[in-house]
Specification:
The protein is α/β, with parallel strands linked by helices. Helix content is 54%, strand content 13%. It binds adenosine monophosphate (AMP).
Length: 181
């Protein structure tokens, strides 16, 4: 099964993505994670990605599409995957030629996401300043909301209430995938 998870930062995409990956026995892949790895490299591309990420901006579509395509053609992703963080723009969605089964929108209000990020424990990411987080939420509304409509029209969008317990969200996703598959 090929599933895409979309949501604002703090919606719980990686938590739910990893749970789904375990349950459905397909690998989890996050573009944010890929870019954070690339940002550590002391190359021109690495430094560029780091700068864009730290400002809360999106990596340009052309670069993002090329990187994602390269990953998804690897043999481990042939049977399926849970993809977190892509596509984030209409250009990315249109360039994405893989046949996906479902797109899950983890719906959390901006207020709840900001609250969670402010009190999130564990690892603090270098690209996680309040200004960058606010920028990402703003870009989500401008560029990623249209992607939700794009998949709604294709009738593969699933809306999930992300303001529940981790287990309840997971069950709602499983239920909605099952009911519509
Ligand atoms: P995330 O972990 O999904 O919040 O992603 C962290 C950062 O990586 C984002 O703020 C962007 O700078 C970059 N990024 C991740 N996925 C994409 C994408 N599909 N398009 C452009 N930039 C992305």
């Amino acid at each position: 099964m090929k599933i895409v998870i979309i949501g604002i930062q703090g919606a719980g995409k990686s938590t739910q993505g990893n749970l789904l990956s375990e349950k459905l026995k397909v690998p989890y892949l996050s573009t944010g994670h890929i870019f954070r790895q690339l940002a550590k490299e002391k190359t021109k591309l690495g430094r560029y990605i780091k700068e864009v990420m730290n400002a809360g901006y999106l990596i340009p579509d052309k670069k993002t599409i090329a990187i994602v395509n390269e990953y998804l053609t690897r043999p481990e992703y042939k049977k399926g995957y849970i993809l977190d963080g892509f596509p984030r723009t209409i250009a990315q969605a249109k360039a994405f030629t893989q046949v996906i089964d479902k797109v899950v929108h983890l719906n959390v209000s901006d207020k709840e996401a900001l609250w969670r990020l402010a009190y999130r424990n564990g690892e603090i990411r270098e690209d996680d300043t309040l200004a960058a987080i606010k920028k990402r939420i703003d870009l989500f509304h401008r560029f990623t909301k249209p992607v939700l409509n794009y998949y709604r029209k294709k009738e593969i969008l699933i809306e999930v209430n992300g303001e529940q317990s981790i287990q309840d969200i997971h069950h709602e996703i499983m239920h909605k995938i099952g009911n519509q598959a």
